[in-house]
Amino acid sequence: MLFTAALSVLALAGCSAAPTSSGTGGTSAPAQPSSAQPSAAQLRELLAARADAVLAGSAAGVAATEAPGAATAVGGAATSLPWAQWSYLEPVVLGSRDGLVAVRATLGFRLDGDAAATSEHVQLTVRDDGGRWRVVSERTDGAGAAVWELGDVDWAGGDGVSVVSVGGAGSARTLLAAAEQAQRAVTRWWPSSSTGQPVVVVVPGSDELAGGLGRTPASLDGLGAVTVTGPAIDGHAASRVWLARDVVRGLDPGELQVLLRHELLHAASGSPGRAGVPLWLSEGVAEQAGWQAVRVGPQVWARDLLAAVRRDGAPAGLPADADFSGAGLRAAYAGAHLAAEVLDEGSGRGAARDVLRRVLDGEDLDSALRSVSGAGVERLVERWRERAGSLAAGAAGTIEP
Ligand SMILES: [Zn+2]
Asked: How much is the pTM?
């Protein structure tokens, strides 16, 4: 009974790949020339002082770079986070009007623990404030809002993972212990030195999740968790696990572990958004990592697949990427998980994980399967269909919980 509700929530909380945008939006500069524009040196000086204040966590320091009445999220939320890098690169004056000068720059930022920096274009307006140039407004210009632009943030750092909570004062610390437990388990299952420390970002609900990811709430298709990595720099990328707080609240501790371990496995493997990696493989291994948190068997975790098999017969093939959204999403996750378990059953615990590692390293899927299990995709599909059929017929099978 425990998992009747849990499964529906977890299915809603499945995840999808969404590479981080580095920001490509265009802008229209305020028209027309004006007499007063900052020199390149003045602009660099202003932005360097602003960056120093953010790095120092000084809201007052940021405010000192702003004109009276300026409205930016930088002095509030951004100074609450532990930055290893915050720099305005290549600022360019776009134009000016009525004393306001539009500036575009690239903001490079990296939280403590991130494996690599992320960059976004930013739009600023500045004005001459009694002989000193000051910032009037600043916003990022990426596909989604930056986390400090979504509301007040609260941060808690821990062992191998940290939590940023948006709009929930004090709530980062309450999720940290669960995130640390999940991260320790994932690190044992998937040791990795290149992905840095993942950050779990908790936002109030699906609207904020969509806002942060630059997607519409409808396009999230009910997803309550999304892992984002990249863009990769020299093979390293910052990882963010985005969660909706209204989903997390509905989970008991075991269910929360399943969700966190699934997402943190994506972060550790850097699999989201990687071309050439079939979703059945990356999601199947993530499901294995997740469900290791609780001892339940395939009659529970594969329930939606087994119901579909009883209704329509065994599917012709493994779930296609397109199956991981829409009505068949739950059965696709279950099918992916079962494929990973079938691989492990034939070739030893961790076989599916090893196939994923090889494919992420650029090996062809069929070749990776043959290296690990001695047979290619065709044989896996046969065994997977047989196992789905026997489980649907009620056989307990030999798959361990
Ligand atoms: Zn996933």
From this structure: 0.85
